[in-house]
Specification:
This protein is 21% helix and 20% strand. The strands form 2 sheets. Strands 2-1-4-3 form a 4-stranded mixed β-sheet. β3 and β4 form a beta hairpin. It is elongated, with a radius of gyration of 21 Å.
Amino acid sequence: MTATAAITAKARGWPCLILNADYQPLSYHPLSLLPWKEAIKAVFLDRVNIVAQYDHRVHSPTQSMALPSVVALKDYVTQNRVPAFTRFNVFLRDGFSCVYCGSGEDLTFDHLIPRSKGGTTKWDNIVTACSPCNLRKGGRMPRQAGMVPAHPPRRPSSFELQAQGRRFPPGFLHESWLDYLYWDAELEA
């Protein structure tokens, strides 16, 4: 297939679910997706196996190919690495809600031990807080402010973040993906 392959406007945005070699998603939140062009490139570079396809096709002057909707890596990617300390991962660890009041609006970082008192920006000192709670706590220690977090902060494992990610399914799920995605039972009810 050439780089000038034509595709209908209808199929342009159709992403492809990418699975590890064990047919588990590489990530649940964000869901491991590839743009259709990257999925086709991975197929031709022999890095993935096509598991499911859309009804739409791409064409070159000499070939036609159905767009992949699900692909699996040929080589297994180890998932037990230490998660990066990022704002997104802290929010994911804390369930995208304030550890003080449970709100999911206007989320920020909060240093349990304030930086002004020697607190560091590390997993065990950072929690998710809504702006009003963060402002109310200010530069005080949690007990001084009468605001104790619902759970103590700690470094999560990559498996814990994956499990937490299953609580937040994306807005769009193609039916061909559903056999490979395992959301929490409470969401299916």
